[in-house]
Amino acid sequence: MIPIFIMWIVVIILAVRFLIQFKKGKNSMKQLTRQNEVMLFIGSFAFLFGVLGQIIGLFGAFEVIQNVGEISPALIAGGLKVSSIAPIYGLVLFLVSGVIWFVFRSMINA
Fold it and tell me: What number is the average pLDDT over the span 3-20?
């Protein structure tokens, strides 16, 4: 979760930086386009990173279940719910960065 949180901070910083540079007309449109693409990439990477974290966690949990034997379905459901937090957090960042990317792309092309 910490790497995904850091990616949130990076996207926010890049979005604020983009707006400041766009208002001042400081950078060329090519640089702003590249910065905009980086925000979208970080958002998509956050989602993939969350899914990877979930898969690694589930792999470890399934190994423990295999060694222990019988596990209650409620315990498994609780574990699946907890393991879904990182992908959901990454997906929300992906959606936010996608909206930011779309808005900023429209600003660049206008």
Answer: 93
